[in-house]
Amino acid sequence: MLVFILNAGSSSLKYQLMNPVTAETLAAGICERIGLDGVLKHEFGDDRELKMDVDMPTHKEAIESVLRTLTSGEGKVIDSTDEIEAIGHRAVHGGEKFSASVLVTDEVINEMKDLIPLAPLHNPANIMGMEICRELMPGKPNVAVFDTAFHQTMPDYAYMYALPYDQYAKHKIRKYGFHGTSHYFVSNEARKMLDKKHNTRIIVCHLGNGSSVSAVQNGECIDTSMGLTPVQGLMMGTRAGDIGAGALQYMMRQENLTIDDALNVLNKKSGILGISGKSSDLREVLEGMQNGDDRCRLAVDMVAYNIKKYVGSYVAALDGIDALCFTGGIGENAALIREKVCAGLDAMGLVIDPVKNNKRSKEARDIATNGSASRIFVIPTNEEFVIANDTFKIVSEMKK
């Protein structure tokens, strides 16, 4: 089965064409600057790449361009869209309504529209991608895979905020968590590496421009760092992470900011960018630190300290730990961050091996010392495989 995987953003569109049975990716790419001038970047074959300027006034033209590129010209990998058996969509917010991936129907789309207030930047684009694919490839099943679904196993005492209860009852204000497909994939890979499916206590650090930590017990999430929205939790590329409400109020008064202004600061001007004053890209900040920039040093120390605090609290929540996992662009590549996070965690049974930690590899690996009571894994994430696999399972059940 070939699954067309779509991740539709407000002005971009990521895609892959994958066989979930063999995990082979035939092609992958991104449409950028939709609504402006339009750029299509297409990867296929043996590391071959195409970059094309394509007129994309809307997402419909972007998806049409992708399908045309997959089936014709230099980037062709299939003869026709008839070879695509299903479409899997990344969906950011499923609220409490969706605790698992689902077949896209009119009812599902309407329920997702009801959830737009919880994800006003993401859900509309996700829905648009589903509606366009149903129009362009009628009759082919579409499946929605939700970022929030994996975290729906959290107990109420973990996901509730200590606000008046009627705020939850009326508006469903609570912690939902994100990056669920990544946390699910990595925690399952860790269980395989531990060769242990039961009584497992795993902490996953998904670290990139957006970052989150989850505590996973016996394959189920019991807590995660992101909340109602992705701004809560860790310090990230441009997001502030955890911040006291009083500090936010004080900043608004001092700077004469509206709530929208303040949220723009929290989401787009804070985090690594805000502290370093240099970049939201940790690689550039690490370089700045090495060149003696003290604000870059501060940003790096804050990033590692934030992660370390969550790891410690989740070891307590799990009553111990079997494996600590690092994934995402920073988690997989920033050896210094892993070193700083693990420093001093010997009492928790986590002892990092500096030689293993500094050895670069694209494969999953254990970077703990041989004598470490708990394992420390670096595991490349594969969210697209989760989407493709869930789509395959749901479509296969339909055919029975």
Automatic annotation (TrEMBL):
Mg(2+) binds at residues 7, 383. It catalyses: acetate + ATP = acetyl phosphate + ADP. Its main location: cytoplasm. Keywords: ATP-binding, Cytoplasm, Kinase, Magnesium, Metal-binding, Nucleotide-binding, Transferase. The keyword Kinase applies. The record marks 179, 239 as: Transition state stabilizer. Its EC number is 2.7.2.1. It is an enzyme of class 2 (transferase). ATP binds at residues 14, 206-210, 281-283, 329-333. It is found in: Cytoplasm. This is Acetate kinase. It comes from Marinobacter persicus. The gene is ackA.
